Amino acid sequence: MTLNTTFTPLDMATWPRQQYFYYFTKMMPTGFSLTVDLDITATYRWAQTHHRKFNPIYLYLVSRVLTNHPEMRIGRVADQLGTFDVLHPSYTVIHADHTIANLWTAYEADFEAFYANYLADVAQYGDVPGPMPKAPQSANLFTIGCLPWMSFTNYTPLPFTPLTSYQPIFQAGKFVTTAAGRTTMPLSLTVHHAVADGYHASLLLNDIQTAFYHPENNL
User: Fold this and answer.
1) Residue 98 is among the residues annotated as catalytic for this protein
2) Bridge partners of 177?
3) Of 93, 99, 196, nearest to 145 (Cα)?
């Protein structure tokens, strides 16, 4: 599949975040992680009513919200820092022997088109052994996963080499039904501090919650 992606280089001389980028990459390399309880009640019911799998809905809604947050779409191409117009979700599937594979599906603004492409990708590559059965691994993929077997209050990826990617990392957990009949899901967001602060992370998570509150407006 050809990825129609626009990459806009950043002018470091005029980029308002230039000093912060330098500080959080050279002087104090830092990332941070936040975990929230996402209310997925409306979207979960929408999925049941419309006979749709929840995971591709989750991937789509997060990808859709990211199109409105340019600070989360910063990356490098040929050592040039810039902003991608979209990020494509890179997610995990599990094999029968409990090994995993990393797949990705190109983001499409049309949900039904994305949903069909997701099903096709899982059908074609889901049982292929190995960690990365689908090529190419584009520079504008972002990591988004789910641990449906457990609920958690915090999830923090721990890279063993210095961070060179600026895309956010998402991890969801097990659904929980509250006494009030609401369905929630823990959602962890990890970001590189060079491109975003807590303020930006808060805006992103709030927008994701709004999208899950109103699936009828977003799917």
Assistant:
1) no
2) 183
3) 93
Indicate which residue of 95, 192, 193, 200 is catalytic: 193
Give every CB contact of residue 87 below 8 A, 6+ residues apart in sequence.
63, 66, 72, 73, 107, 140, 141, 142, 167
Q: At what angle do helices 54-66 and 41-49 cross, to 10 degrees?
A: 130
Predicted confidence at residue 33, as pLDDT, reads: 95
H or E element in which residue 42 lies = helix 41-49
Mean pLDDT score, 100-105? 95
For range 128-138, the mean pLDDT: 90
Global model pTM greater than 0.90: yes
Give the C-alpha separation, 64 to 86, whole Å. 9
How many CA atoms does the CB half-sphere of 160 hold within 13 Å? 0
Q: Which helix (H) or strand (E) holds 176?
A: strand 176-177
Q: Which residues contact 183 (CB under 8 A, 6 or more apart)?
A: 39, 40, 41, 44, 175, 176, 177
pLDDT digit string, tens, across residues 150-204: 999 999 888 777 767 899 999 999 999 988 999 999 999 999 999 999 999 999 9
